[in-house]
Amino acid sequence: xxxxxxxxxxxxxxxxxxxxxxxxxxxxxxxxxxxxxxxxxxxxxxxxxxxxxxxxxxxxxxxxxxxxxxxxxxxxxxxxxxxxxxxxxxxxxxxxxxxxxxxxxxxxxxxxxxxxxxxxxx
Length: 122
Fold this sequence. Notes:
122 residues, mainly alpha, Helicase, Ruva Protein, domain 3, 6 helices, DNA helicase activity, DNA repair, nucleus, P-loop_NTPase
C-alpha cells in the first residue's frame, strides 16, 4: 500500500493545497490577535511585528504581542511601540536563533564537559 496507508482509506482522503500567508494576511491576523488581547499597538510596531512573523513564524510573532504589552505597561505606556517589540525580540529567541546560539556555544554547556573514558567492563 502506498505511504503505508490502506488503499480504501487513501481513496477517501482529500488533498488540500495550502500556501504561506502573505504580508497583508499576516498583518491582519496580528491585528485581530491584538484586539483579542486588548493590546493597543502603533502602526510602526505592527509593521515590525509583521516582518518578524514573515521571517520567523506567525506563532512566534503572536507570542511577542503579550510580552511587548507587558513591557509597555512596565514603562507606563498606553500603546506598544517599536522599542517594546525590539526589547522582547532580544529577550525571547525564535527557533532559528535559538538553534544558532546552541551551535555557537555548545562547548560551554555542561553536557559537553563529560569526557567519554574507556570503561573496564570485565
